Amino acid sequence: MDLSPGIRVPYLIQRDDEILTLNLTPTPYRTGDYRLLYNALVGIVFLGVGLYTFLKRPALLSARLFLMLDLCFLLVLTCSFRGSPYYWIDLIVQNAARWGLTFLGPLFLHFFLIFPSDKKFLKTYSWIIPIFYIIPLIQHLLFTLSQFFTFTPAQFFGAAAESREIFGIHLELWVLLILYLAGGALALFNSYLRTADPLGRRQIKMILWGTFIGLCPFIVLSIVGAGILGRRELFSIGVLPLMAIPLSFAY
Questions:
Q1: 20 by DSSP, 3-state: which?
Q2: For site-directed labelling of 148, which of 78, 217, 247, 251 has its Cα 20 to 30 A away?
Q3: Dihedrals φ, ψ of 117, to 5°?
């Protein structure tokens, strides 16, 4: 039915044997705004730098990881909104953002554990890399069960397992993301301290500064300010400095 905004439409609701009539007023609805375009542009910059890096050295594991990392950033930045009036579209968009957020942290940490060279402890403890991916994957599987099978962690682990959601994402996943990002930054700083070559130190220093400039506003404004404290207008402000990360690599 083609309805004009502002007119009153009768809507019937049946509850048992009782039928109720409600008068509803259709209003215009937008699924996105300028912030979605803004976040998408930042995400495209990430993906563009990732593709450029990958095409230059496709055989390098670090180049492949960097491309997947940038793809996760793109998913998080372009799909982290829930505004579609259609259930399945909303579900697909939400899960795309969730997949990006799930693997963003492990990919970030994994990348800096092998860039610019593998950390020595990985030769002895090679099993630790799969664990970095398994932990958020388990949390994501629990989330999937809650969507399709009305499963909640509280049903399995008890009421203490209920957690707060931020942007539709459970708080523990945000905490995991912060830990992974911090771990990746520390791994990069360790590489800087252990590199003796002046040129290598200068290159790592540039990436270290780009990572610091990009991550700090994102964690403080987008995750803590917008997510935990509920100041949603801060999310896009914390997103823009993220471009310092791929731009430092491009430089």
A1: strand
A2: 78
A3: -150, 160
